[in-house]
Amino acid sequence: MLQSHFVALLTYVSEKNGGRKTPASSGYRPTLKFTYIDGEFSGVQHFIDTDLVFAGDTVSAEITLINTDNFKGKLYVGLDFEFFEGPILIGSGIITQIGKEFMLFQNEKR
After folding, report:
1. Fold of the CATH domain 6-109
2. What is the distance between the alpha carbons of residues 105 and 85, in angstroms, rounded to a whole number?
3. Domain boundaries, the chain
4. pLDDT tens sequence across 26-37
5. Number of H helices, E strands in the chain
6. What's the pTM value of the predicted model, to 2 decimals?
7. Which UniProt keywords apply (predicted)?
8. N or C: at which end does the chain have fewer Cβ atoms within 10 angstroms?
């Protein structure tokens, strides 16, 4: 099982549509925004099977949230989110797998 909080399929906005001009390295830490929670949150993206992602690419990544208090019991496979650099939309993602920490919490709630 994962050591990170979840795995997501990430799609980076193309440079033509305002995306990054330089590639993102594994360990990139944009802000994440989920539609059901007010605010933005930091999350570290560790790319699977690559070290660099270019604008317009789609890649799987393990995501480690910096603060998990707002997310326990709220993350699920299929949940989508966006990620930003400041006010600039860099890409979007969809959760494909939940990490053990959140699986245990969700099982306790049922």
Report:
1. Elongation Factor Tu (Ef-tu); domain 3 (2.40.30)
2. 30
3. 6-109
4. 999 999 998 877
5. 1, 8
6. 0.87
7. GTP-binding, Nucleotide-binding
8. C
